[in-house]
Amino acid sequence: MSNVTFLKKWFNRRKEVETDERQEEDFYRAGQWQLVWWKFRQHKLARFSMSLLAVMYFITIFAEFMSPHDPSRRFRDYLAFPPTSIHIRDETGRFRSPFIYSMKMGRDPVTARPVYEEDTSVIYPIGLLVRGDPYKFWGLFPTDIHFFGTGQDNMPIFLMGTDALGRDVLSRIFHGGRISLSVGLIGVTISFILGLLLGGISGFFGGLIDEIIQRIIEVLTTLPQIPLWMALSAALPREWPQLRIYFYTTIILSIFGWTGLARIVRGRLLSMREEDFVLAAKLDGENERTIITRYMLPGFASYIIVSLTGALPGMILGETALSFLGIGLNPPTISWGVMLQGAQDIMNVAHYPWVLWPVPVVVLAVLLFNFVGDGLRDAADPYIT
Amino acid sequence: MTEQMKIPVNNINEHQTQPPLLEIKSLKKYFPIQQGFFKRVVGHVKAVDDVSLYVNEGETLGLVGESGCGKTTTGRCILKAITPSSGEIWFNDPDMGRVNVNELEHEQLVQVRRNMRMIFQDPYASLNPRMTLQDIVGAPLRAMKIAKGKELEDRVAEMLRRVGLRPEYMRRYPHAFSGGQRQRIGLARALAPNPKFLVCDEPVSALDVSVQAQILNLLQELQEEMGLTYLFVAHDLSVVAHISERVAVMYVGKMVEMAPTQELFMTPKHPYTEALMSAIPRPDPTPREKRIILTGEVANPANPPSGCYFHPRCAYVEDICKTKEPVYEEISPGHYVKCHRAAELKLSGVMNLA
Amino acid sequence: MPANNVIAEIKNLHTNFYLREGVARAVAGVNLTLEKGRTLGIVGESGCGKSVTAHSLMQLVPSPGKIEEGEILFYPPGSTTEVIEIHKLEPNSKEMRAIRGNQISMVFQEPMTSMLPVRTVGAQIMEAIILHQQVSKAEARTRAIEILSRVKLPNADRIVDTYPFQLSGGMRQRAVIAMALSCNPNLLIADEPTTALDVTTEAQILDLLRALQQDFDMGIMYITHNLGVIAEIADDVAVMYMGKVVEQTDTSSLFFKPLHPYTQALLRSIPQLDDVMARTGKNKRLETIKGMVPDPYRILPGCVFHPRCPQFMEGICDQIAPEIIEVEPDHIVRCHLYTAPAEAHTAKDARL
Question: B199-203, C273-277, C337-341: which has the highest mean pLDDT?
Answer without folding.
Answer: B199-203
